Amino acid sequence: MSRFLISAAHKSSGKTTIAVGLCAALSAQGLVVQPFKKGPDYIDPMWLGQASGRNCFNLDPYLMTPEQITTCFTRYAGPADLSIVEGNKGLYDGLALDGSNSNAALAQLLDLPVVLVLDARGMTRGIAPLILGYQAFDRNIRIAGVILNQLGGARHESKLRAVIEHYTDVPVLGAIAHDPRLALVERHLGLMPNHELDDAPQRVRAMGELIAEQVDLSRVRQLAQSAAPLAPTHIPQQVLPLAGLPIRIGVARDKAFGFYYPDDLLALELAGAVIVPVDTLHDTQLPPMDGLFIGGGFPEMFMPQLQANVAMRTSIRTAIEAGLPVYAECGGLMYLARTLHWKDQIYDMVGAIPVDVLMHERPVGRGYVELQTTGNAPWSATAGTKPATVRGHEFHYSSLENVAPDLKFAYRVLRGHGVDGQRDGIVHRNVVASYSHLRNAAGSDWVDGFTAFVRARKVTQEQSAAFVAATRTVQVNGHPVATDVEGYLKNLDDWTEDFARAQAEAENLELTEAHWQVITFLRAYFEEHRVQAQVRAMIWHFAKVWGPEYGNNHHLHTLFPVGGPQKQGNRLAGLLKTKGEH
């Protein structure tokens, strides 16, 4: 299983650019390249996926157990020719003092050779102790090569190569000159997502060509092949969708919203959901769906377009008020609010949640979060159990204002900021909208709870629809009384003489004294025997009361021409069908 980790001495060394370029360059050689990203990032994986033509999966030691990481890696790396794991920050950086969630720890867990990207601006001889120090800090980590970045020219490169060759045993795999064509577009929150750029494919292809010219790809492939075989691990079988009612889950995917973990979307499909794409910028209404997922994104960059699409905003708000289950994260929460305020401009959003959003110049919530469920969520994988603790992450520059005081929250914040430092996950009708991002594959299991709720609600709706379809009402003294489509009472206790008159009028029948005698007999017979009277019992009774001339089957059918005394008579008497009726 060919593989390696590409890391750096510190953040902003250019490792993402080089990782994207390597994915593009190696894919252009005909290799199946499987990318992975360490940490909770969304944007880097989108670029890596663009370059490789395959979904990029996140490996996160804080959110995932070692077993979950190993399973995820082996599942998706197995079919590939080569796998590239891009680290985050520096090789030894991480939350824990012991480095247990660092890039180096991930390299050790998956036995990944390390390619170290070094920003060499202003460096010559000093690069040697840097490399030697990284080697000595943890002897369990194999730094298999370095790629020099941001070089000032050929002379600078030759000096660095000579120093590294003289003082270290680490090969130089490539030397990248400073080139604006290798820069990924950045803005206030970091890299710009590839799906916002119409020329993203061209940019990635150009990056691959530049990297191919300046990196020894054959040595990179050899390095990847030198990785030791991974120990056998049990990979749970990807089961077929769960049996049950099919459901349709809308997913907002456009330039404003695009932050989704690919394994979460796969989990939705495995749970029996058909994913329905939704474009909040251009679609005029929600397509038919049973639930909606609005992930993160940059709605502040598209405020005018989102406000201008009044039809879509109205469609979503109407669906939410009608009970549509919705899960919204960060950007999705901002979109469901009343207004979005940024740089002295205020734009209307969906208006489904009674809050207003204000953008700030600095982050409000950034980093990992730890949440405790409150039991307020309409759906939860931990429903019916004691409060559970789940982990996620947040990255938002906005806060909420004018928050309705009676709002409920799905989570209590143990670590992080959330909505107000104490709570997150606004609950409104069947909506959960939070600043925190959860990942199903990391143990939150939100997909199971969400799809189970959506499916149960759909079953209830279909049952209600079937009931309504089989129900009509009769107006009795100005009040509706429910019957089935044939006119039989839904609730036998609703019978009154006024109901009989109203039902008879609906059937174009004028009640006479003879009709009332039959109705009275039918109700008395049912009260005594707890079954409806058969026609023969009616004939026997009314032959004695009216005599043979009228107490017969023909006359009874004349009195009740719409189905005879057994059907029309029982309807007017407020009784059920007799046994054997169809």
Overall geometric form: elongated
Strand content: 15-25%
- What distance lies between the first and last C-alpha atoms, to the nearest angstrom? 68 Å
Low-confidence parts: none
Helix % is 25-40%
**Tally of alpha and pi helices:** 18
The biggest beta sheet is recorded as:
9 strands, mixed
User: Roughly what is the average pLDDT, rounded to an integer?
Assistant: 90
Structural class estimated from helices and strands: alpha/beta
| Rounded radius of gyration (Å) | 35 Å
Main β-sheet, spatial strand arrangement = 12-10-13-15-24-23-22-19-20
Tell me the number of strands. 26
In short:
35% of the residues lie in helices and 23% in strands. The chain is of the alpha/beta class and 582 residues long.
How would you characterize the overall build of this protein?
The chain is of the alpha/beta class. The protein contains 18 helices and 26 strands.
Question: Any key phrases for this structure?
Answer:
alpha/beta, 582 residues, 7-stranded parallel β-sheet, 18 helices, 9-stranded mixed β-sheet, single chain
Strands, helices and their partners?
Blueprint: E1 3-8, H1 15-28, E2 33-38, H2 43-52, E3 57-59, H3 66-77, E4 82-86, H4 103-109, E5 114-119, H5 127-137, E6 143-151, H6 154-167, E7 172-177, E8 186-187, E9 190-191, H7 200-214, H8 217-225, E10 247-252, E11 257-259, H9 262-270, E12 273-278, E13 291-294, E14 296-297, H10 303-308, H11 310-321, E15 326-329, H12 331-336, E16 339-342, E17 345-348, E18 356-359, E19 365-373, E20 389-396, E21 398-401, E22 408-415, E23 423-428, E24 431-434, H13 446-469, E25 471-476, E26 479-484, H14 497-506, H15 513-529, H16 535-546, H17 553-559, H18 564-572
Parallel strand pairs: 1-4, 1-5, 2-3, 2-4, 5-6, 6-7, 10-12, 10-13, 13-15, 15-24, 16-18
Antiparallel strand pairs: 8-9, 11-14, 16-17, 18-21, 19-20, 19-22, 22-23, 23-24, 25-26
Helix pairs in contact: 1-2, 1-7, 5-6, 15-18
